[in-house]
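Risk register update: the risk that structure generation would not scale has been downgraded. Supporting records follow, first protein first.
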Amino acid sequence: MNVRPGVEAPEFSLQGYYEGGVKEFKLSDFRGKWVVICFYPADFTFV
């Protein structure tokens, strides 16, 4: 996937930790707001 600033990203959802609990987030929840998305696939693995 090649996503650049100004290019609309595809819709997706994921779970994240927020205010003391796990919550599901959708990209569309942040429509009209600035969003920075960072993925670190090896941070929480035993590799």
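Supporting record for the second protein:
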Amino acid sequence: MNGRLAEMKPALPQLISFHQFSGLDHEDSHTHLYTFYELCGLVGVSGVDEEALFMRLFPFSLNGKAKAWLHSSKNTETRIAITTFAQGVDDPLCEAWERYKSLLRRCPNHGFEVELQVQTFYNGLQPQTKMILDTSFGGSVMFRTAEEAITIIESMASTNFRSQHGRSSSHKRGVLELSTQDAVLAQNKLLSQQIEALNQQMAKLPQQLQAMQANAPPT
């Protein structure tokens, strides 16, 4: 086990407990998960150690009926594993996606809405994997519906699976196991899409200004 994980300071669980989620109507579970991942990032671990860290610390982030929900089932460990899912550094997309879906199947009463399932999976992905997904979407996955996101993820995972199993072990390279050059190309493509969208918005600006002037009350 990573030394930083084994020597985790008591201050970190205490810090996380200051940002607890109780499951009340005015609370946002998405914001809570983002804050939780951000705080866990202070430890600076990755891969298997990162997932172990999430599972150890997540109960400290809950309170009230949210904590009661966590402990209300024999599937407590699976629920934590779902909520704190993380793609391994060397895991291709197809394996990460199947592992995540397997966790959901093992705990059919997990209580997570589809939107939260997608966001939890996306948040747990490696940065390069997120970049490729965002490029395929033409923007952030989080701006799409859950159904659209799942369709794209399934398609890319299927392509990744065929790539993984269609080559010899000495030449395997998943679609999402990117070299530095691949990552730069993907980032440039996403940037080009964003610039194109901005140019389209700017082209509409004169018409919008004319419409505003035409509708302005006389002075």
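Confidence is low (pLDDT under 50) at residues 168-175. On this basis the risk owner (M.S.) recommends closing the item.
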